[in-house]
Amino acid sequence: MDGGDRLTLGHRWSHTLDKKGIMKKLFVFDLDGTLAPSKSALGSEIAGLLHDLLGVMKVAVISGGDWSQFQKQLLANLPEDERLKDLYLLPTCGTQFYDYDGHWSKVYSEDLTDQERSKIKDSLQMALDESGIKVDKIWGEAIEDRGSQITLSVLGQEAPLSAKESWDPDFKKRTAIKAILQPMIPEFAINMGGTTSIDVTKPGIDKAYGIAKLRDQLQIPISAMLFAGDAIFPGGNDYPAQTAGVDSILVRDPLETARVIQTVLACLGDGATQITSPGKEV
Fold first, then answer.
1. The pTM of the whole model exceeds 0.70
2. Is-contact 279 21, C-beta < 8 A?
3. 182 backbone dihedrals φ, ψ, rounded to 5°
4. Same domain membership, residue 93 and residue 157
5. Do 92 and 215 fall within a single domain?
6. Residue 106 and residue 119 in one domain
7. Other CB atoms closer than 10 Å to residue 152's CB: what's the count?
């Protein structure tokens, strides 16, 4: 989406404020590229703004990353206080769900079987080998078992952001790997995530699935949610959230996400004005 197509928050919400509609109760965020750079810690400004946001509405974070990644990137940089009870975390696109009641608890985890995980890992390695795509260096583990998801990070899980951002910006390398992989494991879903990753899950597991899980777990209609992500375009791993019917905001990076949160806080902070979405409840 270019600048001509992008609607600013102020312009967009000027058409929904003060109209009869559904009050927004939950703001859902992607993690990598939206709240924080890929596999990097949450910045202090975003951390403070998220804490403020939790004072006025519920917040959820959904990502293909596993629980340990959420702990390192997100939770390690958020104040640990009573506001966390309104924060909900969905690793591996919602196949895991965590909430907070004095401590973090796993509500559910929909794991792959041992046989399924073994087949996926073998197939990922074969597809990578057959693609002929070579890399000069791998930082850490390349194929990671996340229980409910197997992820190939071609440069490794610990690759520096500078290397990852320049490796496959147009998705062509991963598209080639995916084309080889798909016939090997047609019974699974294959999606490109982050900057160098390919995620394999059971069919139908994407951010639309996670949105549905939030709706069911929290009893909040989709029409009462907002979503922000950096890949809300066809083929992007945030696009399914929009197709699920959530009012979605495309952001370029965490800096723009910070501006989005500031706008929401300006609207909701005094309790007098509510962000609404005209239309029927989902």
1. yes
2. yes
3. -55, -45
4. no
5. yes
6. no
7. 25
Q: Is residue 282, in this structure, part of any structural domain at all?
A: no
Contact 120, 152 (CB under 8 A): no
Q: How far apart are CA 8 and CA 5, in angstroms?
A: 10
- Tokens representing residue 219 in the block: 């009893």
Question: The sheet that has 247-250: what strands, in order across it?
Answer: 104-109, 96-100, 87-90, 58-62, 26-29, 225-229, 247-250
Q: Supply φ then ψ for residue 102, to 5 degrees.
A: 90, -25
For residue range 85-130, list pLDDT tens digits in order: 999 999 988 889 999 999 999 998 889 999 999 999 999 999 999 9
Q: Count helices and strands (H / E) in the chain.
A: 9, 13
Q: For the segment 141-150, what is each residue's pLDDT rounded down to a tens digit?
A: 999 998 888 9
The residue among 39, 36, 29, 3 whose CA lies nearest residue 253 is 36
Residues facing 248 on adjacent strands: 227
Of residues 229, 264, 168, 196, the one with CA closest to residue 34? 229
Q: Of 158, 175, 201, at which residue does a domain stop?
A: 201
Query: For residue 270, what are the domain limits?
Result: 9-110+205-277
**Cα angle, residue 3 at apex, residues 162 and 224 outer, rounded to 5°:** 90
Q: How many domains does the chain have?
A: 2
> What CATH number did the domain enclosing 165 receive?
3.30.1240.20
96 and 213 fall within a common domain: yes
